[in-house]
C-alpha cells in the first residue's frame, strides 16, 4: 500500500514533468556564460529585491557580479563559469552542488540564490555560518549568524590563519553544538560530505592551494568572506593561480574529514531528493522520491 501510494505520487508528477521537458526540446540556452560581461567585478551589497541565500561563496560571487547581481536566473553553465572566474574553482568541484541547486528550484533550468535554502535538498544542518532550519527562535537557515560563526572565527588560536586542521576541529565542535541544540538535527553522510567540501573550499579559495594539505587561509580574508560576503582584494587576497580541482583540494578535504570525527546523529533518514518546497521530509509522501 505504501509502495503503491509512492508510485502513484510519482506517476502523478510525470505529466507536468514531461511538459516541462518537451517545452525545452531543441532548447538553446539563454546564456552561454553569465550575463555579466563587462561588469567591473567591484563589490556592491545586494539591494532589497536581490536574491541571496545560505551559501556565502555564491553570495560573494553575486556581490562582485560574477553571478548576476540580482542573484536570479542562474543556470548550471552560469554558476560553473562564475565559480571559475571568481575563485578559480574548477567545474568538477561544484557540478553536483549546481545540480542540487536546480533540484531545489521551482523552475526547471535556473534558480535564484535563496532557493538553495530548501531544507535537506543540498542545504544541510551544521553549517559554519547559518543556524539549522529547525532551531528557534528564528528558524533562519539563510542569513549569516555571528553566534554560529563564533566557532570558526575563534579557531586555530595563536596564529593568524585557518587551515585543514583547524577546519576539521571546527566541524567536530559544530557537530557537538548542533547535537545539543537541535532535536530535529539531520546529520547524515550526505550532509557531512557537503559540509566537508565547503570547509575545504574556504581554506583553498582564501589560501594558496599550491601548499596542499598545509594551505593557510588568512583569518581576516575568511572572516571578510563570511561576514561581508566580499572578496578581500583590498586586504591583499588574490585568486589562486593553480586551479582548485577535486584532485588539488583532496589533501585538505581528507584532513578535515579525519579530524571532524563524524558520527551520524539526530533524525536519520536515508538521503533522498525533495522535488520542491511542497515535498515533505518523509520520502513516502508526494513530491519526494
Ligand atoms: C527566489 O525564488 C523563490 C521561489 O522559489 C521566490 O519565492 C523568491 O521570491 C525568489 N527571490 C527573489 C528575490 O526574487
Ligand atoms: C528570471 O526568473 C524569473 C523567475 O524567478 C522569471 O519570471 C523570469 O522570466 C526569468 N528571466 C529570464 C530572462 O529567464
Ligand atoms: C543566531 O543564532 C543564535 C544561536 O542559535 C540565536 O540565539 C540567535 O537568535 C540567532 N540570531 C539571529 C539573528 O537569527
Ligand atoms: C594548522 O595550523 C596549526 C597551528 O599553527 C598547526 O599546528 C597544524 O600543524 C597546521 N596543520 C597543517 C595541516 O598544516
Ligand atoms: C601561490 O604559490 C605559488 C607557488 O609558491 C606562487 O607561484 C603563486 O604566485 C602564489 N599565489 C597565488 C595567488 O597563486
UniProtKB/TrEMBL annotation:
Cofactor: heme b
SUPFAM superfamilies registered for this protein in UniProt: Cloroperoxidase
Signal peptide: 1-23
PROSITE patterns according to UniProt: HEME_HALOPEROXIDASE
A molecular function (GO) term: peroxidase activity
Domain Heme haloperoxidase family profile stretches: 39-254
InterPro entries listed in its UniProt record: Chloroperoxidase (IPR000028), Chloroperoxidase-like_sf (IPR036851)
Gene3D superfamilies for this protein: Chloroperoxidase-like
Name of the protein this chain belongs to: Heme haloperoxidase family profile domain-containing protein
